[in-house]
Structure formats: C-alpha cells, structure tokens
C-alpha cells in the first residue's frame, strides 16, 4: 500500500464485525502488512507472528528495542500447541479459566516461532483476546498475530483509534476502529517457565484472581509472586507523557490530597502549568487543569481512562502532571505500575 493512502481507517461493529472489512485487514496480515485493531485492553499493532519480516516492521514502526518480545495473539486453543512445547498443566487450567481475556502466558516456544517475535528468547508470550474483532481477524488471516500496543515505544498506550492515527498513522496499513477499549490497561503477563509462576507485568487480570484459581487447582505448593519481576520490556522507559510527572502515594487520603494541592501550588509559583489527575472522591483542586480519572470505589473506571488522561495532559501542554496514587489492590496494582513508570518513578510518599 502506498504511504499516501495510509492509513485506511475502517469502523467495525464490535458485536458483529463486518466480514468484508475483516477480510481486507486479514489480506494485509497475510501479505506481511500492519493492521492496528482494538482488543479489550488497548489497541494493538498486529502482523503475522510467524513472518520475521512482518514482525520486524512492527519494531521499526514503534521504534521498539529489539530485545523487547511481542505478545502473540491466538483465536483458537489448538494454535497454542503449535506455538509452544512442554505446556504445564497449570497453563491449561489458566487458559480454561481466563481465556479469552487479559491474561498473557509465557511458555516455551516451538521451532516455528521466529526469534524476532520473542526478542531472541526461547519463550513465547501468548494470549487470546476477549474481543470479537481480533478473534475474527486472526481466524480469517489463518495465522497467529504478534501485536504490541499500537504506540511509539515509551509513550502512553492507545485506547481508541484516534490515538493510533495520531501516533502511528503513516506507518500502519489499516486501522480497525472499534471505539474505546473496555479495560484500558494491558494484559497481565504471567511467566510459567520458571519454578514458580511469576507476574512479569500486572494487568487486566488481578493477582488476587490468579491466586484464587491457582489455589483452587492445587499447584503443588507453588505461589504467585505478586512482587513484580522484571520482564524484558519493562526495563525500558514506558507510558511516559511529554511533561514531567509525579505520583503522590499514601494511605491517608486527606493527607495525600493536601500534598497534591501543595505540590500544585509550588509548581505554579514557579510559573509552571500544572495538571492534576484526580478521582471522583477528591476535594476541589486548584490547578490549570484537573482531570478526574474515575472512582476509588471502582478502580476499573480509573484503569479505563488512565492513558486517555495522560494523553490529554500532553495535548493541554502542561509542564507538570501531579497524579493521585491509588491502592495497589486488584486492578490498582496495574494502575500504579503504569503511573509510576509514566512518572519515571518520581514518587512522593506521604
Ligand atoms: P506490549 O508491548 O505493550 O504488548 O507489552 C508486552 C509485554 O510482554 C512486554 O513487557 C514484554 O516484555 C512482555 N513479553 C512478551 N513476550 C515475553 C516473553 N517471551 N517473556 C517475557 N516477557 C514477555
Ligand atoms: Mg506497550
């Protein structure tokens, strides 16, 4: 496809994806092109996972470091057996319970998975998205689809098609527009290749949910490590808006919100334009821009809006973002992971 005609944006029905549109996109995938599509977590930038050239073009489009492996998306459990070897029983149980859904499993890769896709590792990360558009696209393409988030490496992830157009418009062949994504943060990455299952990245499936299921299936004394280990991708800069950012954390909400206001005042006295990421429980803040992410009583709402809000502060050209931290329970663990990384670990504990 010529650069000038890029990208082709096709609106798709998320309940009943139009087969003619899916076929156009599947054709691009089979020919080694790039298709951006919605999932329940964030938008992905997809290519044929078994085509090294195609996967290499994902890395180029995103400017992604070559040692950061890409998650492979499947529409069918049979595919898992082709892409991996030595699958532990635990993986079967987890797939039964959480797939389709925001849980990515790291397993030993089979010969057919190219090293470009796995960042030269002997393992492959797999997931089945809970969204009809990618499921139809994978099925129609007839190949597993490697897809990282559809943003330039290091920036906040895209949660609607407009984000993708703005970030990668000229580098993608087709964007399937399925509206805003439901979960808003990426999948949980769980490594099943070590002696104990390990969360490499907290995400849409919570640590508590994993412990519940793995407990129920008796995993021979194995315990989930909620202590987040370093996945190859996580050592790189991530989710960062253009402006400076600081996260304020603390148990006492009154103390926390007072600190947020105090910091905002200090930075504005220095002549900076300040944005505050608040919650619906926050007091009335005084700042240049205040954005309410969602409710502390239902942190899923915060997860859903998180990246849109970080992007909004960039659009509003603030110099400093001050974000309220949330409890690291449930989906809060994934939210705090993203916020702390977005802030480059500039954290104030009160
Ligand atoms: P994203 O690029 O946003 O889709 O993120 C994918 C995440 O999964 C990154 O943090 C990767 O490092 C991680 N990942 C993918 N494949 C593997 C693998 N084989 N082993 C460990 N982590 C992986
Ligand atoms: Mg990403």
Description of the structure:
By secondary structure, this protein is an alpha/beta fold. It folds into 2 domains: 3-219, DHBP synthase, CATH 3.90.870.10; 244-349, Threonylcarbamoyl-AMP synthase, C-terminal domain (Rossmann fold, 3-Layer(aba) Sandwich). The chain contains 11 helices and 16 strands. Helix 1 (19-30) crosses helix 6 (132-141). Bound molecules: adenosine monophosphate and magnesium ion. Adenosine monophosphate (AMP) is lined by residues 68-69, 71, 106, 118, 121, 123-125, 148-149, 186, 189, 200-201, 231-234.
Outline the secondary-structure elements.
Layout: E1 8-11, H1 19-30, E2 35-37, E3 44-48, H2 52-62, E4 72-73, H3 77-83, E5 84-85, H4 89-98, E6 103-109, H5 115-118, E7 123-127, H6 132-141, E8 145-146, H7 161-168, E9 174-177, E10 188-191, E11 198-201, H8 207-216, E12 244-249, H9 253-269, E13 274-278, E14 289-292, H10 299-315, E15 320-324, H11 332-342, E16 347-349
Parallel strand pairs: 1-9, 2-9, 4-7, 6-10, 12-15, 12-16, 13-14, 13-15
Antiparallel strand pairs: 2-3, 3-8, 4-8, 5-6, 6-7, 10-11
Unique ligands: adenosine monophosphate, magnesium ion
Order of helices and strands: EHEEHEHEHEHEHEHEEEHEHEEHEHE
Q: So how many helices?
A: 11
Question: Considering the protein shown, what is the CATH homologous superfamily of the largest domain?
Answer: DHBP synthase
- Contiguous low-pLDDT stretches (5 residues minimum) are 217-224
Outline, from the CA principal axes? globular
**How many distinct beta strands?**
16
Integer tally of domains: 2
CATH first level of the largest domain: which class? Alpha Beta
Structural class: alpha/beta
Can you summarize the main beta sheet? 11 strands, mixed
* Rg: 20 Å
Strand content: 15-25%
Mean pLDDT: 93
End-to-end Cα distance, whole Å, is: 54 Å
